[in-house]
Specification:
Layout lengths: L11 H21 L9 H10 L2 H17 L6 H24 L7 H8 L8 H22 L2 H22 L3 H25 L22 H21 L13 H4 L7 H16 L6 H7 L2 H8 L2 H12 L10 H40 L1 H17 L7
Helix pairs in contact: 1-3, 1-12, 1-13, 1-15, 3-8, 3-11, 4-5, 4-6, 6-8, 7-8, 9-11, 13-15
Length: 392
């Protein structure tokens, strides 16, 4: 009897996921580090502006990856629960840890964030992502059943509407949360469109086989040049406006087209170019990269937790002490490595000690005969309530 051959997952997009976490951590280093009272050298100020572009690009690429791979898969309650469970664990563990260590004082609002991380929006990105995940059945149905031109029209209208809404309403409060949801839906639809309606999804491999085209746009270098051009445009905008955001109205002014706004044309150019650069590379087989990528979401949750964020950047790192030094960029690189490892190790421990046993138990329950009968009964009852014909 021949044992089945176990295929190894292509690590190209897992490497992109790690790169996104890299630029997100650097962006948080730039925006959350307090500035010194004295002036800092121009090259360090320019370096902070330069790395702060990456946060928006990293978030966009995360959603592009989700849309590309989930548009052909069926969302399940267990997958959504896995994301929520990770949020709940780290919200509770980090709140309890900082409280017991005397690093923060007890407040009722913090306790609510610990026990209800989704409804209290302890983290903005996972909250919006879970909302998007709940919408994936509708989005996948639209991608698979609507004509190609209708999908393109939906993406274009949604993108235009987002920019016009931002121009009129700004980006504050509840509107900002709603704005993020619409933008993630737009990115998800765009990534799904690439998978289902272009040559990106025609290859039998899980990654788009753009390298099969003997043209300039099949080469990673072409997309990396576009990526660099978009990044430099945003950097130029930040430099020209002296770290002040571009005028919110009208949104089509040249500086606004290059603004550090998640849906600005320059940031969109960076995000899609980086995605296609990895799509054009040859397949990568690496267990190490795949394993490291499993901890990317946990790294975000740990270092971006409200209590940890204030302590990390304001007290422990305190980059203001070194912003006048010529080796400040090396200090930033060392901080990234330290934050990455300090968050990765406890996340791996959580996966091994907490997550695996919990989901092994859930898998056993799912395969139990009593559970299957209860699920079939529930499905028949829901179908009868919706007026569906049981024989159809």
């Amino acid at each position: 009897m021949v044992a089945p051959v176990k295929t190894q997952r292509d690590a190209r997009f897992e490497l992109l996921r790690l790169l996104c976490m890299f630029v997100i951590i650097l962006d948080h280093f730039a925006i959350y580090s307090p500035r010194p009272e004295t002036a800092i050298p121009w090259y360090n100020d320019a370096f902070l502006d330069f790395i702060t572009v990456g946060g928006k690009v990293g978030v966009n690429c995360f959603i592009l990856l989700s849309g590309y791979f989930q548009c052909k898969s069926k969302p399940t309650l267990k997958k959504g629960f896995k994301v929520w469970f990770e949020m709940f664990f780290w919200a509770l563990a980090l709140h309890a840890g900082t409280l017991l260590a005397g690093l923060q004082e007890y407040q009722t609002a913090d306790l609510k964030q610990a026990f209800f991380p989704f409804s209290m929006r302890t983290w903005w990105f996972p909250t919006v992502y879970l909302t998007l995940y709940a919408l994936t059945p509708v989005l996948n149905s639209a991608l698979q059943h609507l004509p190609r031109r209708s999908n393109l029209a939906c993406i274009g209208i949604l993108y235009l509407m987002l920019n016009l809404m931002r121009a009129v309403k700004g980006s504050t409060g509840e509107f900002l949360f709603f704005h993020y949801i619409l933008w993630f839906v737009c990115l998800y639809l765009a990534a799904g469109y690439l998978r289902l309606h272009t040559s990106c999804g025609q290859s039998p491999a899980p990654a788009p086989d753009l390298s099969a085209k003997p043209k300039y746009y099949s080469r990673p270098g072409f997309w990396l040049l576009l990526f660099a051009a978009g990044w430099l445009m945003v950097f130029f905008q930040l430099t020209v406006t002296l770290n002040q955001p571009a005028i919110p109205f009208p949104w089509f002014l040249p500086l606004n087209l290059m603004s550090k706004y998640m849906a600005s044309p320059a940031i969109v150019l960076c995000s899609f170019s980086l995605f296609f650069a990895f799509a054009c590379t040859k397949p990568i087989r690496s267990d190490a990269i795949n394993r490291l990528a499993t901890g990317a979401f946990g790294i975000y949750l740990i270092h971006e937790h409200p209590a940890v964020r204030a302590l990390l950047w304001g007290k422990w790192v305190n980059a203001a002490r070194f912003m006048d030094k010529p080796w400040f960029a090396l200090f930033a690189a060392a901080v990234f490595c330290g934050v990455f490892l300090a968050c990765l190790l406890p996340e791996f421990a959580r996966i091994r000690v907490i997550e695996k046993p919990v989901f092994c138990l859930i898998n056993r329950i799912e395969h139990a005969a009593a559970y299957r009968r209860a699920r079939e009964t529930w499905g028949k009852w829901v179908g009868s309530c919706l007026g569906e014909d049981g024989g159809s």
